[in-house]
Structures are given as C-alpha cells and as structure tokens.
Amino acid sequence: MGAFIMDVDCRLELFVVHMSATILDALKRIDNNKKGFLVVLDTSQCVYGTLTDGDVRRAFIHGACLSTPIHAICTRQFCSLSRDDDMSAATELFKNTGINFIPILDAEGKLVNLLTKGQMQALLLYDIHADLSYNFLSLDERIVDEEIYHRPWGFYKTTILNEYFRSKVLSVKPGGKLSLQSHNHREEYWIVVHGEGTVQIEQSFLHICCGSMLFIPKGAKHRLTNTSEDQSLIITEVQIGEYLGEDDIVRYEDAYGRANPGG
Asked: 163 lies in which domain range?
C-alpha cells in the first residue's frame, strides 16, 4: 500500500489510502489522522473516491468485515475542486451540510490539497486570505470549537479568539454576580440577549434587559449582576485590546472569595 502513496505530499499522507487496502488498514489511518475520512487513490495515484468512518459503519451493517477491500465500500460520487478554483467555490460547496471536506485535485485528477469545513471556518476567524494552494493542515482548528468554562456565577464560552478581538457568550445564573473588576489591556462591548439584571460601571448603576448595549472602557471598574430569581442573564461580549488573556483582570470585590485588589 505504501508504494502507491509515497509520492503524495507528505502533509497529506495520513489522509490517503490505496483502493486495494482493507477496511482494517483504513481504520488505522482514520484513527491516526483524527479527521474521520480518507481520500482513496488508484494505481496511478489519481483520486478514486472518498471514505468516511460513516461509510465503514454502514459497510459493517451490510455484512462487510475488516478484510473487505475499501474499493468495495468507498464513495465514488464525491465533490472536489481544482487548485485553480476560487475560494468562493469551496464556500458554495460547504453550504451543503453533508460535505465536511473537499479534495483539491490537479488537472490529472491527483490529490494536491485538502480543505475541511473546520479549516474554512478557521480561515475566517483568523482573518487569513488564502487560495486553494494554502497549507490548510497548518491551521489550528480549535478556534472553531472553544470549550465551555464554568465559574461560580455561571459559565462562559469563547466563540472567537484571534489577534484582533475576542468574543464570548456569558450565562449568569439567577442571583449570580461577577466580581467588581477592571481590565488593564482591553475594553469590552456587551449586548444583553436574554434576561435582566444590573450593571455597575464606576459609580453608575444601570438596569439592563434584552437588547441593552453597554461599553466598558479599559480600566473602568464594573460588575454584572443577574437580579432574576428564575431566569439566566445571557450576554454577548466582544473584547478589543492589545492583550486578551483571561489573566487581565483585577477583582476588587467578589462574592465567591476571589478578590485580588492588588492585581
């Protein structure tokens, strides 16, 4: 099998398999690449089809075994692009919810690149202007799927973090309140999308509800409180500044014992 893929770009080796390989061979490669798919090559190294973990699962349901050759189960009808195509063509293909990756081929039908839907989203979030020759495998796709972080007052999820800005969704539980805090390196813009509460900005106290918009200047002391007894207070937050790390926070007062007024 290796002889058939030795000339493929080393970046793509984990994503290709020869049509004569077995399901077991394919599963090992899918397990290594962590993407859930392979591009299937024929003896001339042209793209023969594609194979996903879903294809394998359906093959097992219909009686295939680990020694079944993948040419018998791979998908022959697949979408691809030419390396000379425009990125807008990829955008159009990804509007189909069933397409999660696109092989990029040369004029002979040989694989020269790959683009996944997650990588396409990462290009947008990192503000990278690329064509279909870009090394998409170099992208850190974790920007697309940030974790949810729990806090004593509720939880937040980062939706975008790049060198320009950070955006979050914060959900404050009924009766929850953030610390009275400030930031040395960033300003924040909030929009309330659900619930109601109060915001303190320096010496001002404001009632907020769905649709309220607020600006938190750099260095300003501020605090968010959910005054509802049974509804979460949810806000979207955009941070802009020279540093967007979570450690840029000074807590002057905190209901959960986390105050650090000295910074």
From this structure: 146-253
Q: Are residues 31 and 96 in the same domain?
A: yes
Please tell me whether residues 186 and 134 are part of one structural domain: no
263 part of a folded domain? no
CB neighbour list of residue 190: distance below 8 Å, 6 or more residues apart: 199, 212, 213, 214, 215, 216, 224, 235, 236, 237
The string of pLDDT tens digits covering residues 11-69 is 899 999 999 999 999 999 999 999 999 999 999 999 999 999 999 999 999 999 999 99
Q: Do 161 and 178 fall within a single domain?
A: yes
- Looking at residue 176, its amino acid is G
CB 156 within 8 A of CB 168: yes
Single pTM value for the model: 0.76
Tens digit of pLDDT for each residue in 119-169? 999 998 888 999 999 999 999 888 887 788 999 999 999 988 888 999 999
Tell me, yes or no, whether 106 and 184 share the same domain.
Answer: no
Does residue 95 lie within any of the structural domains?
yes
Q: In the chain, helix, strand, coil percent, each to 5?
A: 20, 40, 40
- Residue 11 and residue 126 in one domain: yes
Choose among 70, 67, 41: nearest CA to 53: 70
239: three-class secondary structure by DSSP:
strand
